[in-house]
């Protein structure tokens, strides 16, 4: 029985390399080509330049920011909270993500034609999505940590660094338990138009309803809806508590931390998951309106590019949730210390002000409200 292909809009493109002669593409069945023809009718020519530009910027900025963040968080910053374990792992996840981007850049620059083989497609595609959900998971852990620190301080001081390590280990085990079956479960590439090979997209309807459905449903519910709900709930609770304390620097920094996390999730992850839900309904043929499916496809391309920006925004979390003096002025103070004259008799910097207080001027009031006193400056509040 002849298979009728849906027409698609032609656009001027450079000739794509023929992939039919390469052995790794032989796993693409005729059913895949036939059933995925719906994707051929969905065009978004802007995606090639969009992905290339966004991914290139994210690669350069994200690599510099996250490598520097790993260095500072691991070696240079004095921690006053064990939650720095979450931030180190978040920076590590982002660093792994930006290492995948050169493959994605070449893929989109080559008009969505994958040339690196099936296994590379499986690994890079899986790492791309693991970054999304591990980032959200670590965001949630940080918010819960700040919530406990502000509203239940006596419980918070009993939490040991071992507890944080256990949580991180569990998250990585869950991530690996999802990655391994997905990588070993079969090819994740498909035939595209003009003898191209698509990676991690253009799946058949049968794949969406069988192999991909559990991953998409679990990722949507447990990877985003529940964690994002926890973040939304923790923000007003912490904000209410902070509003009751006028001069608490640490608690205000906790609110700043949750605010930045909420902002990143709203800008990067919320649009992606809303669009991905519509895309999933389209692929299982719940949504069949042609005009709406074309709009969904274009929206998904935009949100896929937007979600990658999170790895450039995450270092802002480390910056603003920490003491500004340690991060902003660390290298500046070291440079100045070499040029500021020293007092040879004392060995102290000449610009240091020495204040002498007479013992008679010191008074201690037993009734003083210590809760209203400002917290001492902290090298890092994570």
Overview of this structure, please?
The protein has 382 residues and is an all-alpha fold. It has one domain: Rhodopsin 7-helix transmembrane proteins (Rhopdopsin 7-helix transmembrane proteins), CATH 1.20.1070. It has a two-stranded antiparallel ribbon. Strand 1 and strand 2 form a beta hairpin. Helix 3 runs antiparallel to helix 4, helix 3 runs parallel beside helix 11 and helix 9 runs antiparallel to helix 10. 31% of the residues are buried. Keywords: Disulfide bond, G-protein coupled receptor, Membrane, Receptor, Transducer, Transmembrane, Transmembrane helix.
Which short descriptors sum up this protein?
two-stranded antiparallel sheet; mainly alpha; Rhopdopsin 7-helix transmembrane proteins; G protein-coupled receptor activity; 382 residues; globular
Q: State the end-to-end distance.
A: 63 Å
- Fourth-level CATH superfamily: Rhodopsin 7-helix transmembrane proteins
Q: At the first level of CATH, what is the class? A: Mainly Alpha
Q: Enter the CATH topology name.
A: Rhopdopsin 7-helix transmembrane proteins
Give the mean pLDDT.
77
Brief account:
With 382 residues, the protein is mainly alpha-helical. The protein has 14 helices and 2 strands, in the order αααααααββααααααα. The protein has a two-stranded antiparallel ribbon with strand order 1-2.
